[in-house]
Amino acid sequence: MVDAARVRTIMASVLEIDPGTITDSASMDTVPSWDSLRHMNLVLALEEGFGVSFPDDDAANATSYALITLVLNELVAG
Q: Phi and psi (nearest 5°) for 14?
């Protein structure tokens, strides 16, 4: 299982928001700074931070904190 605090820290850094504001409902629809460019930067930062590689479909569809943690857990469990 991935470290939720680490995911939030990476997300907060890329999205330039307070990690405490990232809840299970955080998504591209609820975080104003989360646009398509930052989304790609977020995926790259998460890949680097967790030593994984998101498949293209997962990278495109991981548009919320909940989905990101789901994908990361699957990738880390390998």
A: -70, -40
Task: State the fold for domain 4-77.
Answer: 1.10.1200
Domain boundaries, the chain: 4-77
pLDDT single digits (tens) 19-67: 999 999 999 999 999 999 999 999 999 999 999 999 999 999 999 999 9
- Compute CA 35 distance to the chain's CA centroid, rounded to the nearest angstrom: 13
Cα dist from 60 to 36, 37, 46, 55, 65, whole Å: 9, 12, 13, 9, 13
Q: Which residues pair with 27 in a beta bridge?
A: 64
Give the model's pLDDT for residue 78.
81
Chain mean position to CA 59: 9
Q: Please, which residues bridge with residue 60 across strands?
A: none
**pTM of this structure:** 0.94
